[in-house]
Write a structure and sequence with these properties.
Protein name: Bidirectional sugar transporter SWEET
Pfam families: MtN3_slv
Order of helices and strands: HHHHHEEHHHH
Strand order of the largest sheet: 1-2
Distance between the termini: 19 Å
GO molecular function, one term: sugar transmembrane transporter activity
Helix content: 55-70%
Radius of gyration: 18 Å
Strand content: under 5%
Organism: Rosa chinensis
Structural class: mainly alpha
Family: Belongs to the SWEET sugar transporter family.
Number of domains: 1
Length: 239
């Protein structure tokens, strides 16, 4: 059963990490121009993946190797996108990405150091290692933030009666990803940190798909439906 879920989680997470960014990166590579590409969603996803990788380590939350593996792959993919941006961006864009990235590493390093030094490995809380509880709360914060960020596009969709601000492939990938991780959290001993954030992610995803279905027919036929919006956040994702 766990082996089957490993396959599904890998597929859904890979889709969420790479859709629709792969095609955009290919386009930027051909044009040698990043246009209005906003790297902040990718930087946020990098930080999210880092925290989930840390959460899944044996000295934080034992028996979570799948969490580490999938988020490690996601981290690698997101870093490739950032490298593409860094390569083709102007000097100002490169400095901005470098600044954000360094700040993220400092934040991540500080929180890792704090949880490692201040919380003993064997101290328990809520029938779980206290270190896992603290790191799990941090991970949930970033996961819910990223799952919920595309909801800002819903306002534009309702206002314009057009779904050009939404990426259908990303909506589907995030919804399925949330469902798969929610199911995984219920296997064996319930992992409430994976369950809560991804359960909310599945609900957010379902709501966005309903909005997309509602306004798809009212979208002018000459509008681009590829979801070219700088507010789009790559989720989880993610766990």
């Amino acid at each position: 059963m766990l082996g089957l879920w490993s396959v599904w989680l890998g597929m859904s997470s890979l889709a969420a990490f790479s859709s629709p960014q792969f095609l955009r990166s290919y386009k930027y590579g051909k044009k040698k121009d990043v246009e209005a590409f906003d790297p902040r969603p990718y930087l946020t996803t990098v930080l999210n993946c880092l925290f989930w990788c840390y959460y899944g380590l044996p000295f934080v939350n034992p028996n979570s190797i799948l969490v580490v593996t999938i988020n490690g792959i996601g981290l690698f993919i997101e870093l490739i996108y950032l490298i593409i941006f860094f390569y083709y961006a102007a000097t100002k864009g490169r400095k901005r990405v470098a600044t954000y990235f360094i700040c993220e590493l400092i934040l991540f390093g500080a929180l890792v150091a704090a949880t490692m030094l201040a919380i003993p490995e064997h101290k328990m809380a809520l029938n779980r290692p206290l270190r896992a509880v603290v790191v799990g709360v941090i991970c949930d914060f970033f996961n819910v933030l990223m799952y919920g960020s595309p909801l800002f596009n819903v306002r534009d969709v309702i206002k314009t009666q057009s779904v050009k601000y939404m990426s259908f492939t990303l909506l589907v990938a995030n919804f399925l990803n949330g469902c798969c991780w929610t199911s995984y959290a219920l296997i064996g001993k319930v992992d409430y940190f994976i369950l809560i954030s991804n359960g909310l992610g599945a609900i957010f995803g379902a709501f966005q798909l309903i909005v997309y279905a509602r306004y798809y027919k009212t979208t002018p036929k000459d509008e681009d439906l590829s979801g070219k919006t700088t507010n789009e956040v790559q989720l989880c994702t993610n766990v």
